[in-house]
């Protein structure tokens, strides 16, 4: 390997280390800020354990409509018991010394990471900027804003829509002689992992937007590969043990691919026709 090739490679490593150091410092500062409200975040994550979620509210409205339209069916199937089921308190449990402390650290770290996402994405941009043209570098603000927004949307979509479904499904197995007993580490680690995963899933259209603007990918490249995207979504989601979690990951992941295809079509770099490709008589 020649000296000319070694030097740029070492420069890239130095630049990468510099960006990583800035990101780590930013996350540590964000973690310190998030530490103050980590208890409230844990309570929010625990909320579905009461059994009262938007799903139970929807079910209650449906049963009340059944009572109004078909009182006999409402009485026969004892739907009033479903409506009047009291909330249960299911506290999280821990079995190791300092376990709650480490969980608080993990929650604060992820929350701090989300707080400093603009800095993180800006550092990512600075790392790839030397390989971009002057015109492409002007996209830094739209990139940082869009990437931060989509990650937060993905995280909130999971916490508000998907997380209650997963916990509600888990609690549906409770019966006489079979009660839930959630360990705090298993419960919180599972939630935090999926928050991060959904945030990254929602980044796919932004990544596609950038790559299509730079001419690296296009609608013509992505559209025919839908079946491979579906297969890849299935493989990625299959790493989660239960079937429900697998589907709630696979469906949004594939939908983001579909959105990415249309993003590439609408915002992608337009192909400039050469002289041979122009119609006859065109100047």
Give a description of the structure:
The chain has 283 residues and is mainly alpha-helical. It folds into 2 domains: 3-47 and 94-173 and 180-267, no CATH class; 53-86, no CATH class. Helix content is 71%, strand content 0%. The radius of gyration is 25 Å and the shape is globular.
Number of continuous helical runs: 14
Poorly predicted regions: 272-283
Q: Spell out the helices and strands N to C.
A: HHHHHHHHHHHHHH
Shape: globular
First and last CA, distance: 48 Å
Tell me the quaternary state: single chain
| Beta-strand percent range | under 5%
Query: Quick one: biggest sheet?
Result: none
Structural class: mainly alpha
Tell me the total number of β-strands.
Answer: 0
The level of helicity is over 70%
How would you state the average pLDDT, rounded? 84
Summary keywords:
71% helix, disordered C terminus, 283 residues, 0% strand, mainly alpha
Describe the structure in brief:
This protein is mainly α. The protein has helices spanning 3-34, 38-46, 54-69, 71-76, 79-83, 99-115, 117-128, 134-137, 140-171, 184-201, 204-213, 219-222, 226-237, 243-267.
Produce the secondary structure layout.
Blueprint: H1 3-34, H2 38-46, H3 54-69, H4 71-76, H5 79-83, H6 99-115, H7 117-128, H8 134-137, H9 140-171, H10 184-201, H11 204-213, H12 219-222, H13 226-237, H14 243-267
Helix pairs in contact: 1-6, 1-7, 2-6, 6-10, 7-9, 9-10, 11-14, 13-14
């Amino acid at each position: 390997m020649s000296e000319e090739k070694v030097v740029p490679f070492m420069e890239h490593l130095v630049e990468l280390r510099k960006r990583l150091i800035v990101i780590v410092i930013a996350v540590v500062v964000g973690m310190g800020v998030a530490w103050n409200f980590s208890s409230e975040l844990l309570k929010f994550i625990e909320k579905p354990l009461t059994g009262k979620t938007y799903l139970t509210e929807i079910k209650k409205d449906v049963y009340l409509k059944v009572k109004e339209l078909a009182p006999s069916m409402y009485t026969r199937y004892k739907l009033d018991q479903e409506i009047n089921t009291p909330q249960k308190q299911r506290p999280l449990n821990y079995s190791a010394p300092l376990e709650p402390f480490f969980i608080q650290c993990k929650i604060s770290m992820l929350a701090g990471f989300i707080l400093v996402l603009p800095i993180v994405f800006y550092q990512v941009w600075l790392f790839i900027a030397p390989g971009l043209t002057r015109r492409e570098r002007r996209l830094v603000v739209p990139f940082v804003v869009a990437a931060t927004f989509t990650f937060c949307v993905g995280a909130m979509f999971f916490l508000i829509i998907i997380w209650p479904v997963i916990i509600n499904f888990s609690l549906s197995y409770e019966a006489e002689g079979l009660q839930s007993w959630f360990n705090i580490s298993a419960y919180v680690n599972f939630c935090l992992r999926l928050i991060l995963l959904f945030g990254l899933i929602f980044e796919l259209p932004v990544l596609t937007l950038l790559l299509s603007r730079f001419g690296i990918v296009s609608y013509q490249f992505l559209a025919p590969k839908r079946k491979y995207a579906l297969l890849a979504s299935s493989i990625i989601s299959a790493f989660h043990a239960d079937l429900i979690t697998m589907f709630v990951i696979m469906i949004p992941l594939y939908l983001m691919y579909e959105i990415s295809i249309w993003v590439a079509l609408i915002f992608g770099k337009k192909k400039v026709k050469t002289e041979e490709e122009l119609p006859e008589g065109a100047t």
